[in-house]
Amino acid sequence: MVMRIKKKKQNENFQNSELRSKAGQGDANAQYLLGGLYDIGQDVPKDYVQARQWWEQAAAQGHVEAQYLLGGLYDIGHGVPQDYEKARQWYEQAVAQNHAEAQYNLGVLYYEGLGVPQDTTKARELFEKADVQRYLDSRAA
């Protein structure tokens, strides 16, 4: 029993070192995944600063999920000061790639007037775009 656990741990370390190597070489998907490990504290210490740094590198390369998640960090203030303007900027980049959750979250910012002038028409447009993609939260908006 101990051998299986030890072997699994060695395998996880190998996978993490390979992921870290790819991320360090500029692989956007590896950067996104490594940021996710830091975000949830899986096989690494939970560290929102590290998560943000890896996601920023992936997002700068156009990784849509990293852009969306960065928007979320700033939207709720996880490991960064809450900043609706920065949240909007990241969500907008993801929206430009037709990301449904980003469309919804950006719609909420417009609906509430958080980091943007309140604009219920713009909010409705974004909710409708998310709804077309069957993002269920948009139906309640």
In words, what does this structure look like?
With 141 residues, the protein is mainly α. It has 2 domains: 1-61; 62-141, Tetratricopeptide repeat domain (Serine Threonine Protein Phosphatase 5, Tetratricopeptide repeat). Helix content is 74%, strand content 0%. It has 8 helices and no strands. The chain has helices at 2-24, 28-40, 48-60, 64-76, 84-95, 100-112, 120-132, 137-140. Helix 1 (2-24) packs across helix 2 (28-40), helix 3 (48-60) packs across helix 4 and helix 5 (84-95) packs antiparallel against helix 6 (100-112). The chain is elongated, with a radius of gyration of 18 Å.
Features:
disordered N terminus, single chain, 8 helices, Serine Threonine Protein Phosphatase 5, Tetratricopeptide repeat, 2 domains, mainly alpha, 141 residues
